[in-house]
Amino acid sequence: MRQEDLILVWDRWSGWAHLAMHQRGSSEQPCFAGIVHLPVAEASAVHVRLAQAGFEVRSEYSVDDQLLEFRLATPASSPAAVPALGARS
Predict the structure, then answer these.
(1) pLDDT means over runs of 10, the chain (89 residues)
(2) Hey, what's the torsion of the CAs at 66, 71, 73, 76, to 10 degrees?
(3) Which of 3, 21, 36, 81 can pair with 87 through a Cys bridge, CB separation 3.0 to 4.6 Å?
(4) pTM, whole model, 2 decimals?
């Protein structure tokens, strides 16, 4: 069964994030899925928003001082789950 994760790269300064779908374990590049605005000040608040939308945070790391990347799984783990965060593509 193909398992896809949602990759969310959040800009902690502006609150904007881009979203991409990625097949777990694949060496292929993620596929753009949309953008979303998460106007919160802290990563912990992003975790709360993600949990409220039904996402499980599989991993998180700081890309740099500004960007934070989250790899997310959902029970459905499909692009159809993206609107739960209010994404625009």
Answers:
(1) 85 93 90 90 88 88 94 64 52
(2) 80
(3) 36
(4) 0.79
